[in-house]
Every structure is written in structure tokens, then in C-alpha cells.
Amino acid sequence: MEERTITIEIPEVLKKQLEDDCYYINRRKRLVKLPCQTNIITILESYVKHFAINAAFSANERPRHHHVMPHANMNVHYIPAEKNVDLCKEMVDG
């Protein structure tokens, strides 16, 4: 089988990126390991923890007032969406 040479046009921006990658991989030994150690589930779980901690600390900063929904007949406590940990968990769970 005969070898053939194929010419490929590579934009300068891509050439620069490939040269940088080659340098970091071969000279600096910085090959990216795949798959990434931090997956999407870990990121979302960390976000829920962060959200819950921030909600807890912001609740401690001000006196705790539960608002009763004016249009509801039941005595249901209203928690604003930006502090509602259960809502955050539901959104993360999909």
C-alpha cells in the first residue's frame, strides 16, 4: 500500500492551540486525565450543600419571620425561593 500525503488547512488560532497543547503535554507533562474526577453529580451535590449553608447563615443573620401567604386559608409558612433548600434540591434532582 502506498502512502499519500494529504494537505489540511489549519487556521492560525487552532495551530497556536495545538502547539500549546503539544508543549504542555510533552514538555510539562500536563496531560489532562479523562474522565474528570469531578462529575456533574458531585458538582450538583456541592451546590446544594453550599446553598443550604448560605440559607442557614442568612436565616441566622436576621430575626426569623415566617410569612403567612395572604391568599391561602391554611396557615402555611412561606419561604422565599432564594432561601428554599427543598426547592433547590428538587431543581437539582430534575
TrEMBL record:
Domain MRG: 2-94
Family matches, as Gene3D superfamilies: MRG domain
InterPro entries on file: MRG, MRG_C_sf, MRG_dom
One GO location term (cellular component): nucleus
Localisation per UniProt entry: Nucleus
Keyword annotations of the record: Chromatin regulator, Nucleus, Transcription, Transcription regulation
The UniProt record lists the keyword Nucleus: yes
Family matches, as Pfam families: MRG (PF05712)
An annotated GO BP: chromatin organization
PANTHER family referenced in this protein's UniProt entry, alphabetically: MORTALITY FACTOR 4-LIKE PROTEIN, MSL COMPLEX SUBUNIT 3
Name of the protein in its database record: MSL complex subunit 3
Organism from which the protein derives: Homo sapiens (Human)
Source species taxonomy: Eukaryota, Metazoa, Chordata, Craniata, Vertebrata
